């Protein structure tokens, strides 16, 4: 097994917040890596992503691209957004 293949992914240092740096991120939703009741939305290119919350009894589903009832929710591997926020 390659050295890279044996490394487990660590999502504890990044919340999944997109950088909204590309046109492909605009008007899209992105999973919050730590909180399944929340997700990120890029409203405008070059502006910080907005943190959104699902309604009562709902969790954000990457599979469906929206909030779903918690009974329909399934865990999926987090996917890195196309860009990350610039560090100050």
Automatic annotation (TrEMBL):
Locate the transmembrane regions by residue number.
none
Q: Which domain of life is it from?
A: Eukaryota
| Protein name from the UniProt record | Chitin-binding type-2 domain-containing protein
InterPro entries per UniProt:
Chitin-bd_dom_sf
Q: Where is this region: Disordered?
A: 1-21
Q: List the Gene Ontology MF annotations in alphabetical order.
A: chitin binding
């Amino acid at each position: 097994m390659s050295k890279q293949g044996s490394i487990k992914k660590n999502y504890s240092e990044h919340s999944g917040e997109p950088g909204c740096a590309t046109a492909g991120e605009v008007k899209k939703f992105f999973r919050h890596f730590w909180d399944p009741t929340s997700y990120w939305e890029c409203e405008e290119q070059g502006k910080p992503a907005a943190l959104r919350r699902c309604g009562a009894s709902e969790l954000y589903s990457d599979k469906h691209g929206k909030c779903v009832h918690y009974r329909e929710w399934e865990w999926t591997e987090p996917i890195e957004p196309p860009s990350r926020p610039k560090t100050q």
